[in-house]
Amino acid sequence: MIRVTLIRGDGIGPEITDAAVAMVEATGAPIEWDEQPAGASAIAVHSTPFPKVTLDSIRQTRVALKAPLTTPVGGGYRSVNVGMRQELDLYANIRPVRTFDGLPNRYQGVDLVVVRENTQGLYSGIEHFIDPKKDAAQAISFISRFASERVIRYAFEYAKRNHRKKVTLVHKANILKLTTGLFLEVGREVAKQYPEITFEDRIVDAMAMNLVIRPETFDVLVTTNLFGDILSDLTAGLIGGLGLAPGANHGDDVTVYEAIHGTAPDIAGRGVANPTALTLSACMMLRDIGHPDKADRLEDAVRAVIQARETVTPDLGGSASTHDFAQAVIARL
Ligand code: NAD
Question: Which domains does the chain have, with CATH numbers?
């Protein structure tokens, strides 16, 4: 059995986790879940949104499937998501999107992957008021050669492993000349070591437009933390929305698999959330832990249920519940 830390999360988290776990178990994957608390639901019992038991479990299993966690806006606790990525040094956030057949999408033929630097940039957590009256605040974007190199190398290695042809580095080096300029400089150096993969760079604002006009021309994107966060929501929109887009946070020793989306407080508790993104995140996990055949079967079943459009959740225009969707996928399996 392979032990996997399971975090059910907040908001729609428990609903989509139940569904995703049922679908993964239906593949027959030999997984033993080690359920651990995190997020708003952990505070009442552990007085912290990220208890040490949870961190210890992830360090031990080295694989976690995590549902979204609430991050209060403004003061209070630091974001658990950002904290977890920094604590476990999960430096590469992989966010693949591929068009779903059968959905009435504006775009067909989208098949791209955003590789986002996950520990630095404007999300370094270096933020403070600069006057006693708290009338002005400052956030510092920190970018190092070391962190840039490892995530850019990860993007090229990912491209090589997955038979992808092109890496596009996204930056704003015309304005943020030193920080994202360094990221671009490192990208150009790393690219020379991968002559078989086409390398190009784009300024982030032009990239946003190009992704909307010609998304099918992009393959692997690699970018800094904030740009990656924004662009990956955009790319999720290209294939039908946040409910469909999976992700993985890789470090050298540990990987945390999670959907891109948040806790969806507007629909939480109603049993109508789409569990696809978390389930496809679990498919990424199954591939990485040595069960690519089970991952492919599960992803094919999810895609087939979505294509048939008989048992899809309201975000995809249907009226099925989260549970019904999972049962339809399990029936296909
Ligand atoms: P959100 O992703 O939760 O929701 C945005 C919109 O997408 C909402 O209309 C929601 O109903 C819809 N949506 C999201 N996931 C869906 C799904 N699976 N099925 C159907 N519809 C879905 O973003 P938000 O409202 O900006 O954030 C809510 C909370 O989630 C905040 O506390 C935020 O900090 C947190 N958050 C957590 C993570 C994470 O844990 N990785 C990521 C993003 C946001």
Answer: 1-93+242-333 (3.40.718.10), 106-239 (3.40.718.10)
pTM above the 0.85 mark? yes
Nearest CA to ligand 1 atom 40: 68
Task: Tell me the three state secondary structure of residue 115.
Answer: strand
Q: From 41, 103, 239, 261, give the residue whose CB has the most ligand 1 atoms within 8 Å, as the site to mutate.
A: 261
Q: Helix or strand or coil: residue 295?
A: helix
Q: Which of 19, 52, 16, 18 is closest to 36 using CA atoms?
A: 52
Helix axes 179-191, 145-161, angle to 10 degrees: 40
d(CA 154, CA 93): 10
What would the pLDDT profile of 224-268 be if each residue is shown by its tens digit? 999 999 999 999 999 999 989 999 999 999 999 999 999 999 999
Quote the pLDDT of residue 74: 60
CA distance 317 to 104: 10
pLDDT bin (cut points 50, 70, 90) of residue 76 is low
Percent of the chain surpassing pLDDT 70: 98
Tell me the HSE value of 156 on the side-chain side, using a 13 A CA sphere: 21
As annotated, the active-site residues are: 123, 172, 205, 229
Q: What is the residue with the minimal CA distance to atom 41 of ligand 1?
A: 68
**pLDDT for residue 73:** 66
**Are 100 and 39 in contact, with CB atoms under 8 Å apart?**
no
